[in-house]
Structures are given as structure tokens and as C-alpha cells.
Automatic annotation (TrEMBL):
Residues 1-20, 282-303 are annotated as: Disordered. It comes from the Eukaryota. It comes from Trifolium subterraneum (Subterranean clover). Its main location: membrane. GO terms for cellular component: Golgi apparatus; membrane. Signal peptide: none annotated. Residues 2-35 form the Trichome birefringence-like N-terminal domain. This is Uncharacterized protein. Keywords: Membrane, Signal-anchor, Transmembrane, Transmembrane helix. Residues 36-329 form the Trichome birefringence-like C-terminal domain. Residues 1-16 have a biased composition (Polar residues). It is a single-pass membrane protein. InterPro entries: TBL (IPR029962), TBL_C (IPR026057), TBL_N (IPR025846).
Length: 341
């Protein structure tokens, strides 16, 4: 796949970037008491005939979209019909269109000044869905949503025309902050899903992929965290509790459940729960193998410090391909009544 998929982002091309081991490509998640069939690209193209599948969200959404595209590219090269605002690929054999819209938080945002928050700091309007997403929504048959990790970045939270919190931003500690980044994430999930399940011109299938775990150890993405040397999945019993991950997942599920109760347009909404299963896949990230630079540092220095690395996104091929196998199973069930184990 690495040399035959021109859409693949180089930073996720682990083999092309010199990663020496390959076992991470072969480990597969097996749910209890059932199997997930291998992704059959020809069957997928036929099943999705005439439909539009949209991946919407952050860079992990891009990761999943590229995984899907690389699998399908093996049987047909699509036509690129994209624009600056939206990637768009058309498969002529079955008139399937796959699109990707970048939406970091899935809600309305800008960097304009608001109340005591100055220009230049991103403002998130937590009760308003992303406007561009909503503009194109009626043209989509299946929507796969991904978000969460950008809530760690600097931003201001606005709800009911009031600043209610912020992340990495609090100029005046005397001002009471009503919500934190985890709670803001939960609100954003409810907002976008509610907008989809109540939209008068959308009757498609919405799949919310649950929060994708990262595996930084000894720090965060910007403070020296590492996954260097992880070449096998964790074994049962080796999983260490991650309270932040658990909180983000909990808020996401709560937002999903609140939105489900508001559904009224006949569209379908499903939660694709991958969080716990993929906590075991600390081996599936690019780690230090993020570029083709032959001089890149891939091991810890004499002082024990790890090299710069990516323990958030997923190697391709790799664990992320399983997400699209699950997507295919959900689509089969919803469009033809097939059951998922």
C-alpha cells in the first residue's frame, strides 16, 4: 500500500519512513464471540453505489479517510474533484463519492474578539455546529465524525453568548470558569449530533467514532511524550488507567446519548466504540518514523530523552484499517438489514 496510494500522508507512511518492524500491520482486533470480515473493496464500492460518504473532523478523521481511500485505490483509481475547502474523490464504476471536510472541533469557531477575549485566540461557539459542514450535509448519505484532540489546544469556550471557559487561556483568574475542556467536548458532541439528527433535509447514516486513544508516555505530544520501541500490542492486564481518556470518552458518550433523544428527521445515528480496544495498540503509531529523512533520530539519546514523535495518529497500513472494516459492517446492517455481531 505504501507505494501504491498517492493520497497517503507521508507522516503516516511508517514503512516508507523506515520503520524496521511490520508486525503492527498484522495484528487485528477480534470482538468477543464474533469476527469482523476483511474489508472487500469491490463489495464496498458496489454496496455504496451512487452514495456519498463523508469523513468530517480532525487529522484523525483524515487518517481514517486515507485508510479507506488506500484500500479502495487497490481496485480503482478515483477522480479527484476536490476544492480547497473539501477533498472529494469520485469512483466512476459505481458513482461513489468520498469526501473529507476539515473541522477541528465540529462546532462554529473563529479568532475574532469576543467580550474580554482578544483577537487571535480561537473562540468556540459550543451551541452552534460548524457552518460549512451543515452547508453540505444534505448531499451526504453516510457521515463519519471524529473529534476531541483539538480540545487540548488553546481556545475560548462560548455558550449562550457568554465566555464560560477556556483551554490554555485564562487571563484573569478572578473570573469564574464554568466548564473545562472535557466538558466543552461533551457539549460540542451533543451540538453537532443534534444538528444532524434534526436537520430537515438530512436522512443519512451518522457514525460517531469514539475517542481515539493516544499513547504518549512520560509527557504529552509537546512535552517529550514517547511511544518509541513499542512493537507489540499490550496484553490483557497490562493496560494502565488513563483518567483523561476515560473522561473524554464518558463526555462523548453522554453527548451522543443526549442527541439520540432529540432525533426527529428519520436519519440513523450509531456510536462506533473503538476506544477501549485501541488502548491496547500502542504499537500502531508512527512514533519517531514521521519522515523520510535518513538522518532522523529514532532512538533515545544518552540522556534518555526520546526523539520527536507521533503517538496519536496511526500507521498505514495498520490498526486504523479496522475502523473502516467496522464502518462497512455498520453500513451493511443499516442498508440491507445485515446483523453485526
Amino acid at each position: 500500500m505504501n507505494n501504491s496510494c498517492p493520497i497517503l500522508t507521508q507522516t503516516q507512511n511508517c514503512q516508507g519512513n523506515g520503520r524496521p518492524d511490520k508486525d503492527y500491520e498484522n495484528w487485528r482486533w477480534k470482538p468477543f464471540q464474533c469476527d469482523i470480515p476483511r474489508f472487500d473493496p469491490r463489495k464496498f464500492l458496489e454496496r455504496m453505489k451512487g452514495k456519498t460518504l463523508a469523513f468530517i473532523g480532525d487529522s484523525v478523521a483524515r487518517n481514517q479517510m486515507e485508510s479507506m481511500m488506500c484500500i479502495l485505490w487497490q481496485v480503482e483509481e478515483p477522480k479527484n474533484q476536490g476544492t480547497r475547502n473539501m477533498q472529494r474523490y469520485y469512483f466512476e464504476s459505481t458513482s461513489l463519492t468520498i469526501v473529507r471536510i476539515w473541522s477541528s472541533w465540529l462546532v462554529k469557531h473563529n479568532s475574532e474578539p469576543f467580550d474580554f477575549a482578544p483577537a487571535g485566540v480561537e473562540k468556540l461557539y459550543l451551541e452552534s455546529p460548524d457552518e460549512m459542514l451543515m452547508e453540505f450535509l444534505p448531499t451526504f448519505d453516510v457521515v463519519v465524525l471524529s473529534s476531541g484532540h483539538w480540545f487540548m489546544k488553546q481556545s475560548v469556550y462560548i455558550l449562550n453568548n457568554e465566555i464560560v471557559g477556556g483551554q490554555l487561556w485564562r487571563p484573569d483568574k478572578s473570573r469564574h470558569m464554568k466548564i473545562n475542556s472535557v466538558e466543552a467536548f461533551g457539549i460540542s458532541v451533543e451540538t453537532i449530533l443534534t444538528a444532524l439528527v434534526t436537520h430537515p433535509n438530512y436522512t443519512g447514516l451518522t457514525i460517531l467514532r469514539s475517542y481515539s486513544p493516544d499513547h504518549y508516555e512520560g509527557g504529552g505530544w509537546n512535552t517529550g511524550g514517547s511511544c518509541t520501541g513499542k512493537v507489540k500490542p499490550l496484553a490483557v492486564g497490562e493496560l494502565v488507567e488513563n483518567k483523561y481518556l476515560a473522561s473524554m470518552y464518558e463526555q462523548q458518550v453522554k453527548g451522543f446519548n443526549r442527541a439520540v433523544k432529540k432525533a426527529k428527521n428519520g436519519s440513523k445515528i450509531r456510536l462506533m466504540d473503538i476506544t477501549e480496544a485501541f488502548q491496547y495498540r500502542h504499537d500502531g503509531h508512527p512514533g519517531p518514523y514521521r519522515s523520510t529523512d535518513p538522518n532522523k533520530i529514532t532512538k533515545r539519546g544518552l540522556d534518555g530523552r526520546p526523539p520527536p514523535q507521533d503517538c496519536l495518529h496511526w500507521c498505514m497500513p495498520g490498526p486504523v484499517d479496522t475502523w473502516n472494516e467496522i464502518v462497512f459492517e455498520i453500513i451493511k446492517r443499516e442498508y440491507e438489514g445485515d446483523r453485526i455481531s
